[in-house]
Amino acid sequence: MVDGTARSGCAALASRDEALQRLRTVADAVLYEGYLLYPYRRSSPKNRVRWQFGVLTPREWAEADGPVPPGVSGSVDSWYQQTECLLRASGDARLRVTVRYLQLQRKQVEQSTGDGRHRPVEALRTGTDVHLTFDEAVPREAEIDVPLARLLKGPHRTTVGSPGGAGTEQLGGGAGRVVRRRDPVHAVTTVRAERIRDGRIRDDDDGTALYRLRVRTENTGSLPGGAGVPRAEALRHALMATHTLICGTGVEFGSLIEPAEADEEHARGCRNLFAFPVLGGEPGHGDAVLSSPIILPDHPQVAPESPGDLHDAAEIDEILSLRTLLLTDEEKREARATDPRAADILDRVENMPPEMFARLHGAIRSLRPAPRDAATAPPPPAEDPFGAPPVAAGARGMVPWWQEGGDEGLSPTTDSVTVDGVPVAAGSAVRLRPAGRGADAQDMFLAGRTARVAAVFHDVDGSEHLAVTLDDDPAAELNAWYGRYFYFRPHELQPLAAAVDEGAPDGRP
Asked: Model-level pTM?
């Protein structure tokens, strides 16, 4: 993980800052993921239950019905979040850990009663403007800069909470005011490190060693109303969308998704709870780690065509932008009154030039042209961006896939693909081995299960996917009848038999 090249202190700091800055756009998307969803209105049902990821409430509320089951899913309300990762570091290494989250801010609209007093209201109109009572959020960030040597002596604890506060905005014409209030959030982050020692791990020739780093953030607060208060009250004292950025000088982080062969055992030993750490920065480097309540791949990035945050990084910008334009004037008025960030989205979409929409429509990243002549075609890429084996030149024939006849000669129910020297087709028995790179998160839960192939599908980029049904799924036959399958690439399957039972059309006994 370390190339052994010595870097000066200034160069290392610059590299660290650059790596962290590259992660900022992704980290901001995580911070505001689901903050406010289309159609961006308070009256929308999807915006009545908010803050779905990385929520750390006071422990008494989180465990009111018993301990929170541990897992990597950040969509579970918990009272803590834990990240463990591997790094190689020199003796004088320093680490910078940044904990980021949102603090709830209650926006209460109050109408003037005419006697110097005010009363809370849900909505207030002042001229052409509408003001709505709603919950906002304030971004918070706490930074921990500590030498690795200090962490090896014992845990380092830092307060990362935020104080309460209030602010008042007077509305025009003396009609009323908007009062914003924040309750205090109490939290502590503990950072510790241990050098990994066993019969195989030793100092490398470049003077670095392998370490496991743990970052644990806990909500240490309490609730005035006790553990039985509604979730909306607990959120007032919670950290929301909590995630962690880690970088350093004299360090190189290792992937937990695709660890180096020598580090696989130690990568499996990392225990991540309600967080999922991935490498940040440019591919091929381990300058930084983003530990997120949302599962991401290594080296995540925001699509360069994206014109700005729409608070839903998992959606398609073009669709959201076009649908936002279709909101009625009254709906747009309500959205603007709901939250300033919603107003910013409306302004950006309404002023988006046509060339920006053209960029959003149909960006191509991985298609490869089909060669006309296998003998003169250029060699295929050495490696697919998702880790799939390269496709042989001329494998799809001469007709482009988008033209009529492009799929002639293909038959999903009779075609086969060779896996580990064994032809695999409909009815073949296989074991599932989801790849770390490019695999769907749900596929990872199926690792090691046995299945039957239902069909072999050819993608427009020349690769193949195999549709399978699980052997231990009681609804397998029904799913096959409906055409509902799990899909895997050939290199994610292990053939269990070279022949198919001819007693049944689908290979089942």
From this structure: 0.71
